[in-house]
User: Fold this.
Amino acid sequence: MKVILAIDALEYDKVKEFDCNNLKQEYYGKTDISEFSQPRTMVLWSSFMTGENKEKEVLGEGNKEMWNKKWDIKETFFSKFKNPKVIDLPGFSYDLEAHERSRKLLKSFFETNDDEEKKKIRKEYNKDAFEHHKKIKEEFNKALEEEHDFILGYFSVIDVIGHLNFGNTTLIKMLYKEMDELAEKLRNNDKIEKLIVLSDHGMEAIGMFGDHSDHGFWSTNFKDLGEPKITEIKDSILEYL
Ligand SMILES: [Zn+2]
Assistant:
């Protein structure tokens, strides 16, 4: 079984700072996303799964809301597998309702000037993100018990929580440890031959908030990938298939 642990906004510098040795696996590094005008989540995951730069198509005219874009499995490398399972990936199997809820709360957070109101909104926003994380983790663990030749689990919690709380090191560290523990379980799972941990972009501090940084993170248990483009990652998972 081949598995991709897809973690939105997992930051290379933070993986090192917090000593997340399971996320690092045997080989790790940064991805090169310099060909994109901005580190946009939808653009990057779309380009990853299709193996082509999809920035123009995702941002293109007539596509008013980029988050609604959905790729057919035939346009993605997932179709090379017999029984793939792709959980919650933007542009493919994403929970748009959960995304819309977070986005509305984020908007109202920045619209209000009332500190008490901000506190209340932040609490609701974080709670919502954690509940979604729990749900996706259960789905991912269930898939690992099933007969799939490929599983991708997409986790948004570090990105979502990071945007409003990046200055809160205790909270961010806790999230990195949570994902590191998930990676540890995968590394100890004998059914998994190839494991890739991948992020679309990282995150950097803007005051106490977080914004997307200009490189992603990768790690594998089988090969040094150097500084690959996000469109090249699929080649390593398909090699020797
Ligand atoms: Zn992202």
Summary: The first helix runs from residue 12 to 17.
